[in-house]
Amino acid sequence: MARDFEHIAVGVTDLEKSVEFYTKVLGFSILRRSSTHTEAGEIDIVYVHRGPYAMELIAVQPRKEEGKPVESAVSEARMRVGMNHIGFAVDNLDEELKRLDKFGVKIVSSSTIPRERFVSKYRAKPRNAKLRAITAPGKKPWRLAFFTDPDGVRIELVER
């Protein structure tokens, strides 16, 4: 079972404008900045927090072929503006996937991401243990799995 609510992710069109809004207008603090390259294109991520709650702001610069964005399930899901997914921390992803299977939940994607894949540009040192887990460099890779709720909202399980 999910151990704890971990974060909510929001797709944005202008990352810096969104960071400024959430930090200056709503009083969030920056936890971490990172970027990675995927089949969808360049993905820039900023985690912000207020109290013990984190939000992942995601901006995608889609890879283009012949001047047009590459069409793929990954790029389509990550380029959406608005809520992208809700993330829950789990202690053991394999056990949780077995439990979900008993309910007929279909996993739409899963991956193991080496921590070094996300090149951190900025990392805060929060006091809250949950927030430290999001920013900790560590050696253990992040294991992720995504599925959807009955209305199609993407849910991420993350074992850090």
Give the helices and strands, then pairings.
Layout: E1 4-11, H1 15-25, E2 29-38, E3 41-50, E4 53-62, E5 64-65, E6 68-69, H2 73-79, E7 82-89, H3 93-101, E8 109-113, E9 119-123, H4 129-135, E10 142-148, E11 154-159
Fold and architecture overview:
Helix content is 21%, strand content 46%. It has 160 residues and is an alpha+beta fold. A hairpin with a 2-residue loop joins strand 2 (29-38) and strand 3. It has a nine-stranded mixed sheet, with helices on both faces. The chain has one domain: Roll (2,3-Dihydroxybiphenyl 1,2-Dioxygenase, domain 1), CATH 3.10.180.10. The protein is globular, with a radius of gyration of 16 Å.
